[in-house]
Amino acid sequence: MSATPHLAAPPAHYENFPVASWLCPPHLRPPIAAIYHFARTADDIADEGDASPDERLADLHAYRDELAAAARGAPLESTRWPQVFGPLVHSIAEFALPEALLADLLSAFMQDIEKTRDGGTYADRTELLDYCRRSANPGGRLLLHLYGVNDAEALAQSDAICSALQLINFWQDPSVDLPRGRFYFPLTDCARRGFTREHFKVFPPLAPAPVPQEAINLIAVVSAWARELMNEGAPLVHRLPGRAGWELRLVVQGGLRILDKIEGLGFDTFSQRPTIGKTDAPLLLWKALRMRRQWRPMKAPPR
């Protein structure tokens, strides 16, 4: 369910959204923090603890109702999550945060629970990208909203980056996702290699069996797809002003670095999980500095 961070590095258990890092303009830190805590809490509801799938869904529906109340500016006396909706009410009012984007997140969390519970799959890349549209893309669009960047090209580039980050997380994590019953490989891509979901139950870490070469080829193909999306969205780094644009450069390069590491493992992420560490920082900084400039940065809107 998590994705590599869009603008900053939040705690490992929720990585879809930026936190109010020092790279963000001070007046945007409160709404960014409010968005982050809204998303992180929803992710905790969906993933953490011992609740049953039905209980998690019920709590997410209640959370959705409280989002609707917050968007209306309703009083907070009865909220179950005052630490989330108190700041969010103020941010929605002051910055006109779109309720629909926040609701899309909850829709994706609910879908993840339902598909995991029911053994669901994604028929093709279009269906998987629709999940990314709701699980990852709202983070980028909300950030652009705060910066006053709302043209169609910038939104499309943001969507490409965020979807790429989500896909990279999937191809980085099959050794984590498969034992948890989460299956993100498009069935059309699997079928071209003679696979169904059932075949993956005999791969490590689920069984001490060698990974078939066609499964390795599958990771190679979908990783190339994620790289294409990331490169498609990369020019956006020159649209965001100042420090935010530089941080986005590092996020883009971080995603591409994970793809390089997947390739370095021979595309066998069924057996091991590639990660980025401190030793990668100099290379990421160097690559971020070398990103070609294609757009003039826009000034941040006045408060």
Explain what you see.
With 303 residues, this protein is mostly helical. It has 2 domains: 20-118, no CATH class; 120-303, Farnesyl Diphosphate Synthase (Orthogonal Bundle), CATH 1.10.600. It contains 12 helices and no strands. It has helices at 29-47, 53-71, 82-95, 99-118, 125-135, 137-147, 152-172, 174-177, 187-191, 213-233, 242-264, 281-289. The model is unreliable at 1-20 and 294-303 (pLDDT under 50).
Here the CATH topology of the largest domain equals Farnesyl Diphosphate Synthase
CATH architecture of the largest domain: Orthogonal Bundle
At the fourth level of CATH, the homologous superfamily of the largest domain is Farnesyl Diphosphate Synthase
Strand runs, count = 0
Alpha carbon gyration radius: 19 Å
Order of helices and strands: HHHHHHHHHHHH
Helix proportion of residues, in percent?
Answer: 55-70%
Number of domains: 2
Instruction: Tell the overall outline.
Output: globular
Q: What's the arrangement of secondary structure elements?
A:
Elements: H1 29-47, H2 53-71, H3 82-95, H4 99-118, H5 125-135, H6 137-147, H7 152-172, H8 174-177, H9 187-191, H10 213-233, H11 242-264, H12 281-289
Explain briefly what this protein structure is.
The protein has about 300 residues and is mainly alpha-helical. It is built from 12 helices and no strands. The radius of gyration is 19 Å and the shape is globular.
Write a concise keyword list for the protein shown above.
single chain; 303 residues; mainly alpha; Farnesyl Diphosphate Synthase; 0% strand; disordered N terminus; disordered C terminus
